[in-house]
Amino acid sequence: MPRRSPTSLHAPSKDLPRRTITLRATGDMERYIWSFNGRTFAEDGVIPIKKGEVIRLEFINDTMMHHPLHLHGHFFRILAGQGKLSPLKHTIDLPPMGRRTVEFEANDRGDWLFHCHLLYHMHAGMTRIFSYQDSSWQPPLSDGAAGGGGGGSGHSAKPGRQGMPDMPASSGDSGHQGGLSHTPDGGGHEHDPLYLLLDGTLQSHMSEGRLTARNSHNDWYADWEAGYPDDDTEYEIDLSWRRYFNPNFSTILGWRMTNGEDSEDRPFAGVEYRLPYLINSSLAVDGEGDVRAGLNKRLQLTDRVNLLAEVQYDTGSQWEWSAGAEHLLNKTFSLITQYHSDYGFGGGLRFRF
Questions:
Q1: Which is more confident, 337 or 171?
Q2: Would you identify the CATH topology of the domain 195-352?
Q3: Per-residue confidence (pLDDT) for residue 4, from 0 to 100
Q4: Residue 38: what are its φ and ψ, rounded to 5°?
């Protein structure tokens, strides 16, 4: 990035009204979420602006990846202490855990896309639309990260025909503070995408896994664990909804089906929390009053070899634990060997789709 322009450039007039909007680059590779201020384009896609104001954008990167941020239809000044020699750009690289400040004069009309130019990040939610409003529209009193809604827009705005359920745009409120006089079409990206995932094992002594339908903040999944050490198969199946709040904390609500001894089908609810050293913990209580607590950890030894360990205590079924190792063959299949306290030792294939 050039530190300064080779020639003096015209800066926006000091008489124009100015507004600062803070955009924090946020994301999570585990869930394929990329966003601004923790909200995807589907959740908060519009940043309304008005012709004749100067928009200062404060970019803060809360991720460990570079984000080349690109604004369509405008050139912005990179503010790095260079005054009139501040360079004009339409794309700026936001380095991991870094900060950048830019500003541009809103001197056009219509709707202009702003997004991370890593196109996967763009489609996953790291996108906004700068939308010019009518002359009667007034910007919100406060903006930036503290001003409600992602993207510093001062409200929650979903683009497209869905309109704005929280603050509907209409001719009657087009001049009100913060209410939109125009809502752009999101081109189909205003919908939170749904992903289908399957991760399981088929081994000589047991099978376990999870089938998941997932969007940015919700999992609907079926967990199964089935052991066949003898002629009879023992199984436990959880049908659950998991609400994701952040990489460290989630809540779960579900229904458990089992043929275990002295066990009945029952509802359960609980929380999941990620401990230091990336140890995953869970705590749940079921409809019979039994409490279940668990810990699990995956330790990567090489590019292809992982160690696996899990321990669980249930006030009804008591202790259960397992330990094993996995060798990655490709992105879809692994070889796995495992000892389980209830089903013994075995091995087989792990699959991911």
A1: 337
A2: Porin (2.40.160)
A3: 63
A4: 75, 10
